[in-house]
Design goal:
By secondary structure, the protein is mainly α. Helices cover 51% and strands 10% of the residues. Strand 1 and strand 2 form a beta hairpin. The two termini are 27 Å apart. The mean pLDDT is 98. The chain binds manganese (III) ion. The site of manganese (III) ion has 7 residues, from helix 1.
C-alpha cells in the first residue's frame, strides 16, 4: 500500500511563499488522487509488492500499454509529490552543508549558479512537468526536467534529490501566470538540509 507522506508542517506554514489553499488542494486533492489511483493500477498490474522506485524504473515489465501508462502517470504523481512536500520547511536551511555543498561548488561553481540552472530548467519546461536535481549513476550531479509526471526513474536519469513541480496547480492560485515568481518562492521554503540528506543517501 503506497501512502502519501504526512505533511511535516501545517498547511499554512509555508505562507506567504506557498499559500494554504494551494497546499490544501495540491496535497489534499491532486496528490491524494494520484496515490489512490497508483494503488489501484499497481495492484491491477501485479506490481504492488515492489517499491515505487522499482516500479517506475521497470515500467516496460508491464505489457499492457494503457495500464503501463496509468502506472507511470499515477506512480509518478504519487512519488514526485511525496518528494516535493517532504523537502519544505517553514524554517529551512538556506544552503546545503557537508558533501553536497562541496559537490555543488565543484559541479556548478556555487549554489546561486545551481539555483539559476534549476530556474531555467523549470521556466523553460513547456506545459506541465518537473525540474530536478539528480545524482547520476557515475555520482555526478545534473539539473534536468521531465514532462507530465515523468521523473528521473521513469526516464533512467539517476536518483532525484530535489523536485520542483511546475504544473500550474502548484502555483496558479497565488502566482497565476508568473511561474518564475513561484520558483523564487519555492527556494524560500526549500530545506537544503533535507536535500543534503537525500544526496548522502543517494551516494552512500
Ligand atoms: Mn503537482
Amino acid at each position: 500500500m503506497f501512502e502519501q507522506i504526512t505533511l511535516p508542517y501545517a498547511t499554512d506554514a509555508l505562507e506567504p511563499h506557498i499559500d494554504k489553499l494551494t497546499v490544501e488542494t495540491h496535497y489534499g486533492k491532486h496528490h491524494k488522487t494520484y496515490t489512490a489511483t497508483f494503488n489501484e493500477k499497481a495492484t491491477e498490474a501485479g506490481v504492488a509488492d515492489k517499491t515505487a522506485e522499482e516500479i517506475l524504473s521497470n515500467l516496460e515489465s508491464i505489457e499492457d500499454v494503457a495500464l503501463r501508462n496509468a502506472v507511470k502517470n499515477n506512480g509518478g504523481g504519487y512519488y514526485n509529490h511525496n518528494m516535493y512536500f517532504e523537502q519544505f520547511s517553514p524554517s529551512p536551511a538556506a544552503a546545503p552543508t557537508g558533501a553536497l555543498e562541496a559537490k555543488i561548488n565543484e559541479t556548478f561553481g556555487s549554489l546561486d549558479e545551481l539555483k539559476a540552472k534549476l530556474k531555467t530548467a523549470a521556466t523553460t519546461r513547456f506545459g506541465s512537468g518537473w525540474a530536478w536535481l539528480v545524482v547520476k549513476e557515475d555520482g555526478s550531479l545534473e539539473v534536468t526536467s521531465t514532462a507530465n509526471q515523468d521523473n528521473p526513474y521513469t526516464e533512467h536519469m539517476g536518483v532525484p534529490i530535489l523536485a520542483l513541480d511546475v504544473w500550474e496547480h502548484a502555483y496558479y492560485l497565488k502566482y497565476m501566470n508568473l511561474r518564475p515568481s513561484y520558483i523564487d518562492a519555492f527556494f524560500n521554503v526549500l530545506d537544503w538540509a533535507k536535500v543534503s540528506a537525500k544526496y548522502d543517501e543517494a551516494v552512500k
